[in-house]
Write a structure and sequence with these properties.
By secondary structure, this protein is mainly α. The chain has helices spanning about 10-45, 55-75, 85-95, 100-105, 125-130, 135-150, 155-160, 180.
Amino acid sequence: MKLQRTKPLSKLNRALFWTRAVMVWEQILPALTPFLLLAFAIAVAAQWGLFAALDPIVHMAVLAAGVVLALIAAVLNLRGFKQPSFTEINTRLALDNGVQPEVLIGLRHKAKQPSLKIGKAKAGLAKGDPLALRYLMLILVGFGYLLQGPVPLAQIAGGYLPLEKPAPVVVEAKPVSVASVY
């Protein structure tokens, strides 16, 4: 039996590449969670009108403090990051396809390789958000919509743009005379 060298774009090598990408993504996702929470918190605060009364300098300071806190949380979530080894990648691919890891190693020298499944990434938001604050933000958005109704998109965008304060929304009521009511 003649052993062949595996082609760089063979089905096995592509499956190993994408499995590695999934495994790296699973480790990076918890580090992105603080930034998503910050974006939600800014949108909720803007929806509730908390930034409207702030001076632009104070608004920028609040945003900067939020970014610093998100960066610290992201770094803390990335402390345990490590590149997956070939053995870990091979084992994960084997588990996703329901075969033994040795079978995949044996496929490296076959000319015809079967198509292999790449497993889905495991959710990593719980690690990056152990207090489940993402659900609190969604609840606050819902309460804001129920209590205030739909707010202008410019008001929410104003939370992200401290130097471009939108003009306050003024609702003018028509005077009602007592005679017209009866």
